[in-house]
Predict the structure.
Amino acid sequence: MTTQLLTGIPGTGKTHHLTERALRYLSDGRDPARLLILAPTRTAATRMRDAIAASSDRSLSVAPTRAWAAYAFDLLKRAQTRGLLTGVEGNLKLLSGPEQDVIIGELLANHAAGIAPGPAWPD
């Protein structure tokens, strides 16, 4: 199996196609830990993982589907564990959208109040 990017509007069969490919991959006796399907949301990843698990006769110790954000976070955590993120202190945390909004709001408020330097905005 090769790397493949599958795009299309909702309802075009992307999930069905990827589920079928994953099931073929597993039925060929390949290692489930080497299968990765990225989905746009956690809900979509869970739905696809459940469909694969329900149709496969193999047990999956590693989830073959992940949301993009969860996979990116996992990569960062592994890089930090291996000491590849120099200058990054403490534990990494995956922020929710509202948490990101609060932090950005605080940064902008501190910049506007002259408490902290801000970015060099273009004129």
Q: What stands out?
A: Strands lie at 37-39, 65-67. The two ends are 50 Å apart (CA to CA).
